[in-house]
Recover the amino acids of this structure.
């Protein structure tokens, strides 16, 4: 082979001697805090309860049940804990987002590395470094694949690129050499999975994709550590990852691997729904604040620009988006998000959990929403996600708003205070404050296990 395979390029990044800077450390701690908050906050959702019921658990840690299930007092096997925590973390749709490749790193990478930290006592520095490497690989592989291309084939980027990120993080913790790590990443490419068919009826398989990627990455790392082999061209080969889940290697795309950059470029969510909806919700909440007494009978239309890559998730087909039978239906529904934002000035977990009743009440608002694509939005995508909305009145008045970056994006960086406020709604203010103080006080040279006391859902 005359060129270096993508798996080996990624492996060289994973095995390089990366140093945690203060900036990367501080941001990884915030991402870890956000992960713990959303996982604990989602621990009693039906999908989380179901996935816990599907695995064997114990009330205390032992040699077999070695990893904790976050937000509970339970312990599970290494692989099962990664699976359960990934599913649970992804349930609220409040998890972080790497916009350029349209995926959610925390809910894949952290379940894998934290399970290993529980079982093997890795230092906080090793865990945060491995997690940052996992973000690098998952997000870079996602850019190489392309969100539009992956969605176009009916695949979920978090599910298919996520397993590579988890495998990279696990390989880093295991200190696998370059050849072993290449095999781990190639094995991960073989284990990738995750479809978008959940959109048809609002079921739970999108959440499963995150947990499957976390546990699959663990398995790939363990297999590679045992010298199990995989084809080095698993990513770019004729029957490899890029051709299976996308449109092959797109001209001009390459891996851009800089330690910690993907994590630093990851956005924080403030609404419990698909990230493609957030910019319009930002703008419509602002309009509600400026015009709190809007009357739907006076409104001709609520027009929202939707990025083409996300249209199949949140806007199409239009008739299907008027049917809201489950919270998942609402989480991927721009008309629903637009209606609650403009009518109420917010978009909360409670509204999405009670989506069928809320949608019925706001039916006249949903019916006024028109989603469209915009050349201006497409011109900056995928590097920059922007938003634009118009509220048109029957008397000819028009209210227009736009934003150059969704709130919580790197261009509008979420603060520690905002993350604590977000967690306070999911937990309690005191539990959020205690969790924040604990995560911020993590000592890098000490084992991570025991340093972070995660609140349990039944105690908040």
């Amino acid at each position: 082979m005359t060129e270096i395979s993508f798996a080996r390029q990624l492996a060289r990044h994973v095995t390089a001697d990366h140093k945690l800077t203060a900036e990367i450390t501080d941001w990884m701690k915030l991402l870890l805090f956000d992960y713990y908050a959303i996982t604990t906050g989602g621990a009693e959702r039906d999908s989380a309860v179901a996935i816990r019921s599907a695995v064997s658990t114990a009330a205390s840690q032992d040699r077999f049940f070695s990893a904790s299930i976050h937000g509970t007092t339970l312990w599970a096997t290494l692989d099962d804990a990664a699976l359960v925590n990934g599913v649970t973390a992804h349930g609220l749709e409040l998890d972080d987002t790497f916009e350029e490749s349209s995926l959610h790193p925390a809910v894949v990478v952290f379940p894998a590395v934290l399970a290993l930290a529980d079982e093997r006592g890795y230092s906080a520095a090793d865990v945060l470094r491995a997690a940052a490497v996992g973000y690098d690989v998952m997000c870079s592989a996602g850019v190489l694949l392309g969100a539009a291309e992956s969605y176009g084939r009916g695949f979920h980027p978090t599910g298919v690129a996520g397993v590579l990120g988890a495998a990279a993080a696990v390989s880093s913790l295991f200190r696998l050499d370059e050849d072993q790590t290449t095999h781990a990443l190639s094995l991960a490419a073989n284990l990738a999975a995750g479809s978008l068919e959940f959109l048809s009826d609002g079921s739970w398989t999108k959440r499963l994709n995150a947990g499957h990627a976390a546990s699959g990455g663990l398995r790939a790392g363990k297999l590679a550590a045992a010298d199990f082999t995989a084809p080095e061209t698993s990513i770019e080969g004729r029957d490899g990852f890029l051709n299976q889940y996308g449109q092959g290697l797109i001209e001009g795309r390459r891996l851009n691997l800089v330690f910690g950059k993907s994590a630093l470029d990851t956005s924080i969510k403030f609404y419990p729904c698909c990230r493609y909806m957030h910019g319009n919700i930002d703008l419509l909440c602002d309009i509600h604040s400026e015009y709190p007494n809007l009357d739907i009978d006076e409104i001709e239309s609520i027009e929202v620009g939707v990025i083409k890559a996300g249209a199949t998730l949140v806007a199409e087909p239009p008739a299907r988006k008027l049917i809201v039978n489950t919270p998942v239906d609402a989480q991927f529904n721009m008309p629903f998000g637009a209606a609650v934002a403009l009518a109420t000035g917010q978009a909360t977990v409670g509204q999405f959990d009670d989506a069928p009743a809320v949608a019925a009440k706001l039916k006249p608002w949903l019916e006024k929403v028109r989603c469209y694509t915009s050349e201006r939005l497409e011109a900056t995508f995928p590097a920059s996600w922007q938003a634009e909305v118009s509220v048109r009145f029957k008397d000819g008045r028009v209210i227009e708003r736009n934003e150059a970056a969704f709130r919580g994006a790197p261009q509008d960086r979420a603060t520690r205070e905002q993350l604590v406020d977000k967690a306070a709604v999911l937990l309690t203010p005191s539990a959020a404050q205690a969790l924040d103080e604990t995560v911020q006080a993590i000592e890098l040279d000490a084992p991570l296990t025991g340093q972070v006391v995660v609140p349990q859902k039944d105690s908040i």
Q: What stands out?
A: The longest strand covers residues 299-305. Residues 64 and 239 are 37 Å apart (CA to CA). The mean pLDDT is 96.
